[in-house]
Amino acid sequence: MDRGVPDALRKDEEFWFDDGTITLIAEDVQFRVYKGLLARLSPVFADMFSLPQPVTLEDKTGPMRATGSDSATPPVVHLTDAPQAFRILLKAIAPDDDAAMFEASHPDCFTIASCMRLGHKYQMDKEVGQCVDYLLQYFPTPYMEFDALEDLLPPGFEDDSTYVIGFINLAQLTGAIHLLPVLFMICVWCLDGDTLLQGVGWLDASKDTLSPADLARCFDARRDLTRARTNSLRQRIASLPSSGCSHLGACKNVLHALFLLAMSDEPYPFVRLCEFPTAQGLCSACQARLATLDEEEMSLIWAELPELVGLGQIEGWGEKRERE
Ligand SMILES: [Zn+2]
């Protein structure tokens, strides 16, 4: 047992190498890995290891302490991270098979969140970039990609949109602002007030809550998305019947019924009227015109989405993001 290490500590089953050159302690779990590998991937670890020990480094989440050691045992560094999260970071940089984490299968949301949070903390840009690239597939910037999605959430979210709260914080932490418009829209659309206030709990017992500014953004976004939806529905109904309408009276009645149906209280703005079964009652000219109007309106609302959720204009919004 290393000097100064209490007996209650246990070795990590996956990341304990007898010939490792550094011992990292997260809560009651010890990781023994290779100093050089970590220092090469993370400027934060490189700095930490280059300092004479013992040393105390402060970061946002609390102190990280590197304590001295004799020549026979590797130095010991105390981390403020949860062991579950730190293990995920080690897995991301040293996967035990050939497949990278994001190619092997769909990672669960705690894995993505931990990799993003700790990757940011230890300045491991590649790991953070991988997380952002993965998330952009599900919270995309071009409307075409959003429209093509079968599910609103990535598979690892297990249909629980509460996790979106955590990723709003993580996207802001890492500067991945292009993720935010869809994340906020899902928040506003799927979560009730109490859930918005309570936030989300993670596997390691940590928690993410929305900042007061983001909570306020959600309230305003609910109003603005609802307004955008109403205006857009009204706009389309006002542009019909089509000039080539063959059943003017009947089509007007169907349009009135469609409008009432679509005016539910949901703030979700991407509603295609032509997909309502009631729209089948329109003549073929009106159906074709409605489909065109739907497409135009979807693109217009998408272009405004960052502003509708209170984020202002985002450069490059609507364009395909290149992999980082
Ligand atoms: Zn018609």
Automatic annotation (TrEMBL):
Coiled coil: none annotated. SMART domains: BTB. Gene3D superfamilies: Potassium Channel Kv1.1, Chain A. It comes from the Eukaryota. InterPro entries: BTB/POZ_dom, SKP1/BTB/POZ_sf. Residues 20-139 form the BTB domain. This is BTB domain-containing protein.
